From TrEMBL:
This is ACP phosphodiesterase. It holds the Pfam family Flavodoxin_2. It comes from Aeromicrobium chenweiae. It comes from the Bacteria. Residues 197-218 are annotated as: Disordered. PANTHER family: FMN-DEPENDENT NADH-AZOREDUCTASE 1, FMN-DEPENDENT NADH:QUINONE OXIDOREDUCTASE. Residues 3-162 form the Flavodoxin-like fold domain.
Amino acid sequence: MSTIFRLDASIRLEGSVTRAVADTLESAITEELGDATVVRRDVGLDPVDPSVWGTAAFAGFTPEDARTPEQVEALATAAALADEVAGADALIFAVPLYNFGVSQHFKAWADLVTTDPRFGPGTETIKGRPAFLITARGGGYGEGTPRAGWDHATGWMRRYLEDVWGLDLDVIETELTLAEVTPQMAELRELAREQLAESHETARTSGRSVTLKLRSAA
Ligand SMILES: Cc1cc2nc3c(=O)[nH]c(=O)nc-3n(C[C@H](O)[C@H](O)[C@H](O)COP(=O)(O)O)c2cc1C
């Protein structure tokens, strides 16, 4: 039986585009695999305590017999999060753009997982496993638009998931998600709907291709 790890970082449940596209992808994957278990981590609605990271980071440099109870606890928290990632055959990350940067909840989670020895420098723990990054942006950041280059999240997430953790990553992006509720963006609504429909379609197709990817990762 395959295990799918799914992380959500949207701070809302109602109307969340990343959650909706991730639902489409998750359904396609579970239908394709038949008997998959999905392990969910919702850092948007249930964030990890960011203060644990500092304690865990220094605990790693402290000899085991000299660690404080707080350090032991911080490392145990990191290990429990890392277990979820290490145990996954395929991974889904649904993370929106916030304030032109990386979701703090996703960053806090990734930082803490990275303190676990299995995810330290040069990690190969999940190397080559199929993974999907689903992201959504309220505005538009395409080449030639006034805010081209302002999305400082997707590049970092791609770098971390693909190059640092070595995942076989597909990125599914949706832009202009604020068009529906922003009067100044009214003329972009049609384009926004098309992009959203395309993202769901890509999610469906990607989900169906996961068996092939799992086979090549094995
Ligand atoms: C606090 C906050 C900050 C945001 N910052 C940006 C931003 O910098 N650029 C942008 O294009 N959209 C921004 N957005 C819009 C979100 O990226 C957009 O609504 C996206 O669809 C959120 O993902 P979700 O639909 O899964 O919740 C922001 C939204 C919130 C709530």
